[in-house]
Amino acid sequence: MYDVTLIRNDFPILSREVNGKPLTYLDSGASAQKPQVVIDAITQAYAQEYSNVHRGLHYLSNLATEKYEGVRSTIARFLGVRDEDEIVFTSGTTEAINMVAYGWAMPRFEAGDEIILSVMEHHANIVPWHFLRERQGVVLKWVDVDVNGDLDPQAVLNAITPKTKLIAVTHMSNVLGTVVDIAAITAGAEEQGVAVLVDGSQAAVHMPLDLDTLGADFYAVTGHKLYGPSGSGAVHIRKDRMAEMQPFIGGGDMIREVHKDSVIYNDPPMKFEAGTPGIVQQIGLGVALDYMMAHGMDAIAAHERDLCGYARTRLDGLNWLTVQGNSKTKGAIFSFTLDGAAHAHDISTVLDKKGVAVRAGQHCAGPLMDHLGLAATCRASFAMYNTRDEVDVLIDALELCHELFS
Ligand code: PLP
192, 259, 284, 322: which has the fewest Cβ within 10 Å? Predict the structure, then answer.
């Protein structure tokens, strides 16, 4: 039985006040709050179990290594991946996509080769591909979303030409909340020999995943949105793609032997993990994923579906507010603008005075903002700990904005 009151008690920050009001945290799409078990695990790791990993033969190093490496199988289980050696630890999605861009795409792509992107990508899934455009003459091809904010998988597949090497696409938009039909894209892409990279930063938080059947070549997630520490994350890379990939960062840990005129790399996935990693961050992420799985991803998704249905009804009742994105597959993200002159930053400042935390701005999605013809939006994003009462608090605060700015 999913009990959101009990879940809220697990997150100490949710009981604090902001500006003299109870905190209504609706910015989990930017970064989620952490349950006490994660905070305790971080403290325990530093207080009792800390050492560098992989290198030492002493007790603490072995203990830290065991805990840290154990997270690989937790992430694999969470993502629905059978082979944990297909999981590469990263500091988050940004590093993951750069790793694929530098390690897999750059050595393989030539001038004129094409990468297909959707217009609703986060900058983390745009800028690394611009590097290839600038440095190697790779062509970026953009696929628009329709008026509802949906991305038609067939439109993505129709953009493929003999020059297409990669489709890089989000699983869930961080602005519109649209959930993309990745399976339809991977099925069509594989037939034509085109690789697919999926930015799972938002999707992984809200739905059960089975990456072994989803069929993407690369799938990136970021720990701080998954109720884990910042600086944690992972990318799932299919074995055949891993074999094609060069290391992105060189240094200790990713090598087996180094000589004056040669190096022998470690076996994957460690071949792609150089230097002292985010040891405690990944340990914290493992605990966060266990916490989510204990509650059940289906149960979390069902709770959020109910909450989002309620939020949608309440927001639709405000005829001076426009919600961006009407996809039938819209998840727990609502970006909106107020009709009239009020800027998103002013709205978020008023909401903040009421203890309501939302995000305002471009949301690192410049091409989508251009497509929508908007300079900025406010974004309320929901998580496993939010409630209908908090939706009501948001609506009351928005009504105050309307009074102030109309
Ligand atoms: N992709 C999406 C869809 C995001 O929402 C974010 C974070 O906001 C990122 C990528 C970047 O994640 P990180 O900064 O954790 O690497």
Answer: 259
